[in-house]
């Protein structure tokens, strides 16, 4: 299983509803910080802080525009989402195994009691 330390910053970043909204918005493509601020109803400085947290957690990457180097475009980093999904899938597999074991135990007990 992925170490909790590896994904801790991702969970910390996603704990904020505005940052979750930014991730959702970036799911449909790259956007400028100003567009994200307008879409979430936050100020530019507040959006900059949110984007810094998302960048530090590895959820988002930024790049300079081809036409204007002053413009930063933000996009999701799919590899971080894939790693998060892998951790959740691994956790789900462990839960499924535990539930299957419990189901087998109950079935054996019922069978023993009816014998």
Write the layout of secondary structure elements.
Layout: H1 4-14, H2 17-26, E1 31-32, H3 33-40, H4 44-57, E2 60-64, E3 72-76, H5 78-114
Antiparallel strand pairs: 1-3, 2-3
Helix pairs in contact: 1-4, 3-4
Contiguous uncertain segments of 5+ residues: none
Q: In what range is the share of β-strand residues?
A: 5-15%
Quaternary state reads: single chain
H/E element sequence: HHEHHEEH
CATH superfamily: Winged helix-like DNA-binding domain superfamily/Winged helix DNA-binding domain
What count of domains describes the coordinates? 1
Give the overall shape: elongated
N→C terminal distance: 41 Å
In spatial order, strands of the major sheet run 1-3-2
How large, in whole angstroms, is the Cα Rg?
Answer: 21 Å
Q: Supply the number of helical segments.
A: 5
CATH topology: Arc Repressor Mutant, subunit A
Walk me through the structure.
The two termini are 41 Å apart. The protein is elongated and about 80 Å long. The protein is built from 5 helices and 3 strands. It is mainly alpha-helical and 115 residues long. The chain has a single domain, classed as Arc Repressor Mutant, subunit A, CATH 1.10.10.10. Helix 3 (33-40) crosses helix 4.
Structure summarized in a few sentences:
By secondary structure, this protein is mostly helical.
């Amino acid at each position: 299983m992925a170490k909790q330390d590896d994904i801790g910053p991702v969970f910390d970043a996603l704990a904020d509803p505005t940052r979750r909204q930014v991730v959702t918005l970036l799911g449909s493509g790259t956007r400028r910080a100003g567009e994200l601020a307008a879409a979430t109803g936050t100020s530019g400085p507040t959006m900059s802080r949110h984007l810094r947290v998302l960048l530090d957690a590895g959820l988002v990457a930024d790049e300079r525009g081809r036409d204007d180097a002053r413009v930063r475009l933000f996009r999701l980093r799919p590899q971080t989402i894939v790693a998060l999904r892998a951790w959740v899938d691994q956790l789900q597999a462990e839960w499924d195994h535990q539930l299957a074991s419990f189901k087998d135990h109950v079935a054996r007990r019922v069978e023993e009691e009816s014998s």
